[in-house]
Amino acid sequence: MGAAEPLIEVKDLKVHFHTEDGVARAVDGVDFAIAPERTLGVVGESGCGKSVTARAVMGLIDAPGRIVQGEILLRRQSQVVDISKLDPRGREIRGIRGNEIAMIFQEPMTSLNPVFKIGDQIVEAILLHDRIGRREARERAVDLLAAVGIPLPRQRFEQFPHQLSGGMRQRAMIAMAMSCNPRLLIADEPTTALDVTIQAQVMDLMNALRRDFNTAIMFITHDLGVIAGMADDVVVMYLGRIVESAPVREIFHHPKHPYTRGLMGSIPSLADWGARRLTAIEGVVPSPFAERQGCGFAPRCPHAMEICRTRDPGLEDVAPGHAAACFLHRAAP
Questions:
Q1: pTM, whole model, 2 decimals?
Q2: What is the pLDDT of residues 249-290, one digit of tens each?
Q3: CA 57/CA 15 separation, integer angstroms
Q4: Which architecture, in CATH terms, is 1-100+182-278?
Q5: Which of 146, 169, 257, 307 could covalently link to 153 via disulfide, CB atoms 3.0 to 4.6 Å apart?
């Protein structure tokens, strides 16, 4: 993770949803840290707990969900704040959201208000956290639209969300998220709904913003190909837990967990086009309501042993800075 002290540190986080059907363990004991100016990639299939983890960091877990265990430590200059202990509707967490931690959601049309102009929505975000006049906030909003690569920013300022393309709406969301220069930017699958050309542009934009604004990024995706171009460090989540964590080069060159290898095997590559068949991970992610016994990935793992079905392997160091929750690397090469 680097030598710097973590900006955000998550320790043994558990988020459960209590429903009529039982308790869904959406996040079931997660640990990670993000250092300043670093990008942490969070990878996994849908239903693995990535977005719930991100919402917990933002203090946005709504009923019937709640944080039942763990800490989310935000390091400031003079103090450390545990976000998990704050009132989700209190003044302190509202001061952190947007100002210190901002979030970009997957689909901007569900996050932008369709009846307000793009510029006015960015201005309101600025005025919420900064004590400046509306005219100054307006100029800052125009500058932000220009900074994220939107052409004719003064003209776009006056337009409504439906008048912008998908790529421009996502850029407007990034501009809004960066309006108060947050220390941590959480991006929840921000490129999923975009074509590959716009995906690349948004990724380049976020890398530039990290460099120019000294912002740490938590980048959530199911696509390891995107992570390769974005992240410094990677955690792979499955069934609410981290099954592997490592620096990005290490996890691509020496993946240890069968789930990580399965995700990589499903990525098409021009280098070996036609030379191999893409592999699929059989089955689906189990329900978070199901009672867990042994390794959660064992029912889908082609290498599962008897011990995998009865004992939880737990996350264990397999190399410096590289951890995996798997008995395979302990049992045999």
A1: 0.89
A2: 999 999 999 999 999 887 766 566 566 676 778 888 988 888
A3: 11
A4: 3-Layer(aba) Sandwich (3.40)
A5: 146
